[in-house]
Amino acid sequence: MTHWRLSNLYFWFFALLGGMLPYWSLYLDGRGFSYLQIASLMATIQLTKIVAPSVWGYLGDRTGQRVRLVRFGTITGSLCFAGVFLEPGFTGLLLVMLAFTFFWNAVLPLYEVITLQVLGSQRNQYGKIRLWGSVGFIAAVALIGVLLEWVDIRYLPMLLIPLFAGIAVSAWMLPVEKIVRIQKSPRGSLKAILTHPAVIAFFVMNFLLQVAHGSYYTFFSIHLQLHDYGKLAIGLLWSLGVIAEIVLFMVMHRLGARFSVRNIVLAALLLSLLRWLLIAEMASVLPVLIFAQLLHAASYGALHAVSVQYIQGFFGRHHHGQGQALYSGLTFGAGGALGAWGAGFLVDGIDTSAAFLGSAVVTALAFAAAWRGLRPPPPPPELERGRGQI
Measuring CA to CA, which residue among 263, 231, 248, 214 is closest to residue 40? Predict the structure, then answer.
């Protein structure tokens, strides 16, 4: 029962992401916004991750009231999103998206800590719980893709309402009784963690990885639409990437037992680079595009699964919330926002293919950073005292 209650919020949270991510840029394009405006509006989804997770992660670590903060974030974020129905112009919609995502982006980092804390010694079950988020994403992408074949794209916000409701309800079903408050962490140890060379390499690698994903999250749907793919086909291709991610989560423990973490990261980055090149140059060839989408298992699935383990090892239990917030803010937030804007300039000045070629270049830089500095983390107590050797 506890595992089902944990999986439930993952399902609805990522279902909302699945309802927005493939189609929101098409919705903005349908409303007549320019490519640079679309890039700026899509960047807000990532931009608030720079601040929001750190703020909410700090509050969660200090108060221990992570469940209440998750509930507050889901309800308030939903209310802020309602401003979309006023159909404001660019500036108004930008403010609505900033307000909505400030609360929405607080939910997942807090929830990751809640899940791992509830699981306790059963943390190896994390992948089985998290994969329900992928299932929710696929279900929403497919269902909304079908609906958008029948209704105009301008009705997309209305189609998202049931998903917001699902998140709100599931947030009130969390197993509160199993959440305990973590005592205040040792003073000064967070600085020692953040200045560790391997930690710096970890964040640089992930930052560049998310810069590379900026073109994907912002312009992949538009790129496919320009290659004459319909909305349902676009949705199915997005879903295919997430299916590959699910399979990866299910076998990740086997890969971890057979290969070193460093080798998994380096191989995943090389496959990510290949993915962006194929999308840039061969998107019109469906079998090649399908293969490229299957590589989402590497570019997101493998690297995220490894990164969750790194955060645990680097930051320990005292700084876990802040570590998760920094991972979300510095990589998905700053990296994702910069990647979206950079892609916007490339698309506006050249074309969508140029944006994905840019992603390949940035991924090569991420590979170089990982090759040079990434090492496995030592046991958490050593890093918490600032004396860990990698």
Answer: 214
């510095």: which residue's tokens?
Answer: 330
Mention every residue, 6+ apart, whose C-beta is less than 8 A from residue 20.
Answer: 45, 160
Would you say 53 and 102 are in contact if contact means Cβ atoms under 8 Å apart? Answer: no
- CA–chain centroid gap for 192, Å, is 27
In a domain, 149, yes or no: yes
Place of tokens 């490519």: 35
| Rounded Cα distance, 35 and 28, in Å | 9
Which amino acid, one-letter code, is at 49?
K
Q: How far is CA 29 from CA 84, 202, 218, 241, in A?
A: 15, 35, 11, 23
Domain count, the chain: 1
CA 239 to mean position of chain CA atoms = 15
> For residue 266, how many other CB atoms are within 10 A of its CB?
17
Cα–Cα distance for residue pair 176/118, rounded to 1 Å: 9
Asked whether residue 390 is assigned to any structural domain, the reply reads no
* The pLDDT of residue 203: 87
Q: Confirm if 99 and 51 have CB atoms less than 8 A apart.
A: no
Range of the structural domain that residue 357 is part of:
2-384
Question: Domain for residue 389, yes or no?
Answer: no
Average pLDDT for 228-244: 87
| CATH number for the domain that contains residue 136 | 1.20.1250.20
Amino acid symbol at 188: G
Over residues 161-181, the pLDDT tens digits come to 999 888 888 888 776 544 444
Q: Which of 11-20, 53-62, 110-119, 371-380 has the lowest mean pLDDT?
A: 371-380
**Largest distance between two CA atoms of the chain:** 61
Cβ atoms 85, 157 nearer than 8 A = yes
Sign of CA dihedral 52, 307, 337, 94: negative
Angle CA 215–217–218, to nearest 5: 65
Query: Which one-letter amino acid corresponds to residue 119?
Result: L
For 267, the token pair is 């191989």
Rounded distance, CA 176 to CA 117, Å?
11
Q: Looking at the domain assignment, is residue 233 inside a domain?
A: yes
Between the CA of residue 152 and those of 94, 144, 159, 218, 347, what are the distances in Å? Answer: 22, 11, 11, 20, 25
Report yes or no: 175 and 5 within 8 Å, Cβ to Cβ. yes
Residue pair 149/24 in contact by the 8 Å Cβ criterion: no
